[in-house]
Write a structure and sequence with these properties.
This is N-acetylglutaminylglutamine synthetase. The protein is α+β, with helices and mostly antiparallel strands. The protein contains 20 helices and 27 strands. The strands form six sheets. A seven-stranded mixed β-sheet has the order 6-7-8-9-10-5-11, sandwiched between helices. A five-stranded mixed β-sheet has the order 1-2-3-12-4, covered by helices on one side. Helix 13 crosses helix 18. About 3% of the residues have low confidence.
Amino acid sequence: MMAKTTPEDRAGRFPAAKAVAHRLKRQRVDYSRGGGHPADADLAKDAAQVDCGWGRLLFAQTFQDPAQLVAALREEAPERRDIAVYVSDPHVVLAAAPQELFLDPSHTYRLDLATYRNSRKQPRGFFVRRLSSEADADAVNRIYASRGMVPVRPDFFWSNRDNRSITYLVAEDEVSGEIIGTVTGIDHRRAFTDPERGSSLWCLAVDPQARHGGVGEALVRRLAEHFKARGSAFMDLSVLHDNEQAISLYEKLHFRRITAFTVKRKNSINERLYANPLEEYDVLNPYARLIVNEARRRGIHVEITDAEGGFFRLTQGGRSVHCRESLSELTSGVAMSICDDKAVTRRVVERAGISVPEQMTAAGNDDELAAFIERHGQVVVKPARGEQGRAVAVGLDNLTAVKHAIAEAREVCDRVLVEACFEGQDLRLVVIDFKLVAAAVRRPPHVVGDGRQTIRELIEALSRRRAAATGGESTVPIDAETERCLKLGGYGLDTVLESGQEVLVRKAANLHTGGSIHDVTGIVHPRLVEAAIAAARAIDIPVVGIDFMVRNPTEPDYVFIEANERPGLANHEPQPTAERFLDLLFPTSGQRYANLVLGKS
């Protein structure tokens, strides 16, 4: 009778079977118990933790008991987010401090680096490298802020650039040199002599304005390759249970979910993860949500009155203010009326000494229209009333195109304006309480060829990325204006561009039609700031987005385009737009007032 063979016996005779048996054994490990090598636990550093700048990672499997872990979590610094990972008995830890701690609603995913295969696909239009300068650190913080993440002191990044436990990677645009993505890796062996030879991925973030696809995937892959080369056995990550987009990426890369728990401390940063959510909060657009989050952080009561429209009421003490995104009761009806009619806005700011382009009303006189076009070479056609860039046509140079654009603009508003076109960059300046808070250049959408896809397919892919990055607020329409813009360059929607070839698909830089926004607050010319504040005072409006066309944001030349009484504050992070808005509405509620009372600068 033949003896029964075990998987271990077969593994001894066949190397391939041995590898399979090893992987099966690893998959049976209960990771919620803090690892698969209890006999080696004494090799690990006691109470191991890594300072990541935004907070500390506490490796719970290295703490002696729940009391020691709770004591460490209580040492969390202000405005920081500590995370206890690999908590084996979260119910016991929470029972020790139920009012202070909560179980993070995130899943843990693991990539087995022994079976991971490097991708042959190379990034297009960008490359991944290590963080190498303080400018890189500033760019990473900008991306963190745009994603609602906790910022890190730039000097922390720089001082830890040689820290062998922490790896910072960034993605850089090949053409502009801008940092468009980032990820952080932690080597567990170097952090606390981890017997499991683990590593983990944290803070994966892609710039919402990035024009290239696949940035997040490239960063994850590069980090995995880095840790595999170092001899790590696996790479873990934590992702919110409802982040379907991120989970889809990780599962595509063959991460698998494991049983591991994370505990965090209750604080204003984590509040949305443990507190009862506001009714209809998820229906709010990103512009309303930004303000609501800042209000709740300050302890201001929020009542959502119409989520779909972005309406909410803020109350603190005896003061109550009704808002629609950044438009509040502090903005008068007269100021709104001035901003609503672009011709009126132009007249009001012109009387205040603001430089404005020549303008006329499209009244059906072809001779006057032709003369206006001939005088200025190129013109802009836009409805007198309208928002979000609807029916705005830029750079028209012939009567036929202008008349067609006028007909489309009349679908939005009966009265249509034609004005001289000023070549340059579209600059938005956000003025709150008659002080500049943010300045950004808005760039029109363009696509980059790959030698395979048509312009239509590239636009559709760009539109999906813009929609994902803005919560559906920004998409690139494929309409007559897009076709006209392509035709000017000698292209059509079915044209296949060469790899790396860039093509502008719309001339208007409005965010709602696919434009992107790039912060220039630190370099904007003082004369532009003075002009924007003067325009706000002329309209007498406390919160406004002033649009200029400029040759360069660092130069004084400009012409006024329009004023927006409800600027999208979420587009200007990391500038403190929501903070300054709440300072205006509730002057004693913020950190700025607290510092003043305490005599701090």
